[in-house]
Amino acid sequence: MAGRAQPSGPAGSGGGAPGLLPLLLLLLSAAAIIPRGDGQNLVTEDVTVVEGDVATISCRVKNSDDSVIQLLNPNRQTIYFRDFRPLKDSRFQLVNFSNSELRVSLTNVSISDEGRYFCQLYTDPPQEIYTTITVLVPPRNLVIDIEKETAVEGEEIELNCTAMASRPATTIRWFKGNKELTGKSEVERWSDMYTVTSQLLLKVGREDDGVPVICLVDHPAVKDLQTQRYLEVMYKPQVRVSQNYPLQGLTREGEPLELTCTAFGKPQPTDMRWLRVDDEMPQHVVVSGSNLLISNLNKTDNGTYRCEASNAVGKSHADYMLFVYDTTATTEPAVHGFTQLPNSAEELDYGDLSDSRAGEDGAIRSVDHAVVGGVVAVVVFAMLCLLIILGRYFARHKGTYFTHEAKGADDAADADTAIINAEGGQNNSEEKKEYFI
What we know:
By secondary structure, the chain is of the alpha+beta class. Helices cover 18% and strands 38% of the residues. It contains four helices and 26 strands.
């Protein structure tokens, strides 16, 4: 039948193949003309930037061969292709473009910009290297909370310092004045941020009043970030008695004595009074506020006089020991002076005992003089005794010495008779003669 068409072959087998072959040959020829790279030819560096600052990304080629450089974001979107910016984000700005470098800046960096950015070089095979942007976030808030706004000496108070929403986590350090203290920190993470709280337990004393407690942050995104609170410590009065008259002399009979009591504390002492320890206050003693006056001293005034002061925290006192001397006295014994008798060992103060120690030094000197005088007196007495003994000895051995030659002469009439009668005379001579014969 003349009108039926005869197919020349299977459908798609003869007509489709001739179209694919030319396209494959075209791609191979295009790849053959692209310059080849020489391995590690593309370089870049990681970037660390503080939130809100500017990050600069640099893609560099060591040995440029005019290959195309492009920069892609972490989502593989092209930021710059050569000097063209396909991505519609005005925060990316071209800093430098050449055959060997593509440098791009990113302003107002945020946490969402953190990640890997890819540098690509169109060689055969293509080269790719990535750079990492790390975003640092400084603490947004740094505060110190104190358990008690006003503490009493001897109490232990709690202080907490909190550094909020930072990245990475902060390190908190404590200082009291210039001395570093040790706290205990806890880290809490939410999302990509860290909140750090450090606790400090501090036992306060009166010397801490008005001293700053400093919370300091160590963080790579910030330098010298710190906050401080001043301690307010209440403490019992410090009491001191001073002698106004006589200034540096003995308290003798008939002379006046004036004492002044001073007290410092927080709050300032409102109640101050004088009393005599273990006895009644003499009637002639005049107390006017913080002053005590005795116009005419006598030995009945001897004793310990105490000044007491108190405030809302507690009560303290200082004592003055009075010893009245005769008008002829020239040396002050050790019992006279000031003493501070604190309610606790912590209240013992060098200044409160200074006058008492001065009296003790004078007493020591007086004792030294007495010892020297006693030694001299003993030596003189011993020498006198020795002289008396020698005198008596010589007196007993001094006198007239007699011989036996004149014995019997008193009864003789003449000299011849005296010689005959004398002992050792003729008779004895004869006896001797007879003895020898």
